Amino acid sequence: xxxxxxxxxxxxxxxxxxCLYAVAFMGAYDRFFEGGVSYEFCHYGEIGRxxxxxxxxxxxxVFPATLAFFERKGxxxxxxxxxxxxxxxxxxxxxxxxxxxxxGDFQVAWVNGAxxxxxxxxxxxxxxxxxxxxxxxxxxxxxxxxxxILRGFALWGYPDLLFGLLILILNYGVVFGAWPPFxxxxxxxxxWAARSNFMLWLPVYGAWIYWKSSGRRGRACAxxxxxxxxxxxPYAYYLRSHFGGVVNPNFLWNLxxxxxxxxxxWNHYRLFHFSEIxxxxxxxxxxxxxxxxxDFFRNxxxxxxCGFLWGPYFLSLFxxxxxxxxxxxxxxxxxxxxxxxFFVFLRQESIGPxxxxxxxxxxxxxxxxxxxxxxxxxSVYVNKKTWSALCFLLVLGHAFLWSSYYAKKDxxxxxxxxxxxxxxxxxxxxxEEAESGSVVLSNIPAQVGWYAGLRAVQLPYEWEDVPKIExxxxxxxxxxxxxxxxxxxxxxxxxxxxxSPDERRAFCARFGYAPxxxxxxxxxxxxxNL
Length: 530
Fold this sequence. Notes:
Blueprint (H helix, E strand, L loop, with lengths): L2 H6 L1 H23 L6 H14 L5 E2 L1 E2 L1 H10 L7 E2 L5 H14 L3 H24 L4 H13 L1 H7 L6 H17 L4 H14 L7 H11 L4 H27 L6 H7 L17 H4 L4 H18 L7 H12 L4 H21 L6 E2 L3 E2 L7 H18 L2 H24 L17 H8 L6 E4 L2 H8 L2 E4 L6 H8 L4 E5 L10 H8 L1 H11 L1 E7 L2 E6 L3
Parallel strand pairs: 2-7, 6-7, 6-8
Antiparallel strand pairs: 1-3, 4-5, 8-10, 9-10
């Protein structure tokens, strides 16, 4: 390729953007990262460390509901127990990073940094193929600098960014005919290993490929299915061999939330069955679905802090587009409708002002691309001067909104010592216990597993579950923290032992523990027979 043509190539621009975004992500990490404060960040870091050490998709951090399932299946809780509530593709990406560069916070965070940088550069390349380059650049900037993504999902270690990237690549290949059906199936299988709710969409992709294929439609669908099965087989075999099925437990746990129990299912030491929920509890389930549907649309304007983008986005749906772009928007819209239909019966999640809309993050590229095209389409309806003024005001308003989010402090995760998570005094103490093989019950178990190297069990809601957990695994310490990272507000019964000395004595006498360390932000209890 001639040098001048190369410099004008969208592919060259995308590579340049990826490099710039990667540098910008490292700056954001240096400015905003205060340690692994999310459960996901630390848990994937701990699983990735096991992968890097050659132990495979294993963990020493579990939920009470996981232990109940282990008991039923005869699986012992060890430092390398099989993992069945997390997604392997992201875990192996973290493991690869830790294998290459060593175990540490940056090695975990960098996986999402690379993913969001690549996804943003790829979005530019996709949009710029059929629209002015500035339109693609605007979409790319919207995606990368979104505070929910850069300050939230990326730095908090959520696997949803990798899933969103795979859906972006898959949808491009499906709509624009970039790859053969077998390759599309491989991408679909990889997406399922990145997030199991992809299975909801498998019929949609099969039907789309069938109706849009030219020539031998049945052969195209068969090749797509073969590719999917080939990519999905390792994870499916892992689940089947260890747990007897291929369904991730998050589905039942989220379905039970608000129907069988009022709170998070995985914090209970019990098993959950689909037969418990249907048909006997169809009325609470229907009510939950209706409220979930209303919550989705009520929160839609603030989704990913992108309120300013929805107007241009909807405008782009009505302006003239070529067939491929209409199909691209249509496919994204169908997938959104299918997920919404099922997810309103599961759990709606909004974690503060920086990370709302996590379960729908895969849709963000469609919103960003549509909004950028909406800015371009304004010229169809107004004259050039008015178009320039409106674009300036909309972009300025969005920049002001996002800058206000970036100026905010992290929402309440700061430790009284002012130290990063790995240097907290309680982590220093627990790390000294690592050689003893101690097991800790805590409302921040993933941090205990990642930073202290100990086995850890998530704190249950009820005291009555403590003996059940002890029957499945030894417990040496109970560490309860009031920090926001531990979502202490969800544990009213445990709040009593911090507030009332009488309740603390009653708990210790009943379950055989004694106060061991008192911290400004929590309490460490030790088993008396140690």
